[in-house]
Design goal:
This protein is α/β, with parallel strands linked by helices and about 425 residues long. About 35% of the residues lie in helices and about 20% in strands. A 6-stranded antiparallel β-sheet has the order 11-12-10-9-8-13. The protein has a 5-stranded parallel β-sheet with strand order 2-1-3-4-5, with helices on both faces. The longest helix has 24 residues. It is globular.
Length: about 425
């Protein structure tokens, strides 16, 4: 079923102290949910994370006994509500706001640190027969006013939600469940090929369906963007860009522009264009490792010969077979791959650029400042167009460990540059 989720959650052990918050947001038509966090008879924590949770009110004590306080109890509730690295705003709604740093440390430890962390003393909002929640709401909004850029991101998010609703609405309108099913099946076979006919390969069929819907979404989200005027403060700050801004390089953000957001665990027999994998076979390494090539090792002189902080270098390959050929099982007996290297914590020059000997040869392509996993947060990928080779899918499955999948735009760039390099005219010399 489609999920119906709140955008605000309150975690407290005393309903009377949060009733006003619930009523205020409900009156404004905002989805909000209360969880009783009492240590003795608490509500069960959610079994799956919420996908659109923006604001959490969190109490510190979940019993009358102050000695029962434990920051891990607070963090455990947050852990059950949001995924790692999610955007959300946390309001510590308590009489003991001095516990903020302890709770924040626990949230950092589990990668659930909030974008903003407000502390609000309950005693400051206490009035006769209750709490002044309008004052509380004004206090939160005044703090959010310091981040006007969030307005622009919320407009973008709304356009994505609007577009997805339009797509789902069109697919499901004026048809019965049998016709609805067949319409989705036609999308799967139309985009994935007739080899997907049958009752197996469910995960692959889902991937094909979602990729097709993603294409529709990205093509149409522009027309669903709210017609909202840019605020004066964003005109003067966010969209006033006199020079290129200098900030720390964000490897994780770079990786989002390079890779599909697929976790590092892959199902058996998962093969797709742009799939990057480690070599795990010595025979293949001997034949196709770039480290056996003099041109490559000469270019990597600073990386290979470093006396201190020498980077880890591992052999990798990327599948460059055409996506349509793979999807429709028309690639023949072999997959086409391109050899490369994964360089973990590479040495860079003073301008933070990958340090190679002179300029890199025409056959090489480098992607720097990437994050591939929790262990490999600062990496560079190097590929060489001279080292293309082919393998049957079953041999690939047996002799490679999968890492990431390039997005279609980056894969297209590699394919075009590989094709251009491969089709260069030679020079006939008269001697």
């Amino acid at each position: 079923m489609l999920s119906f989720e709140p955008s605000i959650v309150i975690v407290d052990d005393k309903y009377d102290e949060i009733r006003g918050i619930l009523e205020q947001y409900q009156k404004n038509g905002i989805g909000i949910k209360y969880f009783n966090a009492n240590l003795i008879d608490s509500d069960p924590k959610p079994s799956t994370h919420f996908s659109d949770l923006n604001l959490i009110f969190l109490d510190v004590h979940f019993t009358e006994n102050l000695a029962d306080y434990d920051p891990t109890h607070c963090a455990a509730w947050i852990d059950s509500l949001v995924s790692e690295y999610s955007f959300y705003i946390l309001v510590l709604w308590s009489k003991e706001t001095d516990k903020k740093d302890e709770i924040l440390e626990e949230l950092k430890r589990i990668n659930k640190e909030p974008f903003l962390f407000f502390t609000e003393q309950k005693t400051e909002y206490q009035i006769e027969n209750g709490w002044d929640f309008e004052k509380l709401n004004d206090s939160i909004n005044s703090k959010l006013d310091n981040y006007p850029e969030l307005d622009e991101l919320s407009i973008w998010k709304k356009s994505i939600l609007n577009s997805s609703n339009i797509v789902i609405g069109h697919l499901s309108s004026n048809i019965d469940n049998d016709a609805f099913r067949k319409k989705l099946q036609k999308i799967i076979i139309g985009h994935g090929g007739e080899y997907l006919l049958g009752s197996e390969k469910e995960s692959l069929k889902r991937e094909v369906l979602f990729d097709a819907l993603d294409n529709i979404l990205s093509s149409n989200s522009k027309i669903t963007r709210p017609n909202q005027t840019v605020s004066q403060i964003n005109k003067e700050n966010l969209y006033s860009i006199p020079i290129f801004p200098k900030t720390d390089i964000d490897s994780k953000l770079n990786s989002w522009f390079h890779f599909k957001l697929i976790e590092s665990s892959f199902e058996p027999n998962f093969i797709t264009s742009g799939l990057v994998s480690f070599f795990k076979n010595d025979s293949l390494k001997k034949n196709y490792s770039l480290l056996n090539d003099e041109n490559v090792t000469k270019y990597l002189e600073y990386q290979l010969g470093a006396e201190e902080n020498k980077p880890d270098i591992e052999d990798i390959a990327v599948i460059i077979s055409r996506p349509c050929d793979l999807a429709q099982n028309k690639f023949g007996r072999n997959l086409k791959l391109l050899s490369g290297l994964l360089i973990n914590k590479p040495i860079r020059n003073t301008k933070h650029k990958f340090k190679g000997k002179d300029t890199n040869p025409l056959s090489m392509k480098i992607y720097d400042h990437l994050s591939l996993s929790k262990e490999k947060t600062d990496c560079a990928l190097l590929f060489d167009f001279r080292y293309a080779f082919s393998l049957p899918p079953e041999i690939f499955e047996e002799r490679f460990d999968k890492i990431k999948v390039f997005n279609k735009e980056l894969l297209s760039e590699i394919q075009v540059e590989y094709s251009s390099y491969s089709s260069r005219l030679g020079i006939t010399q008269i001697i």
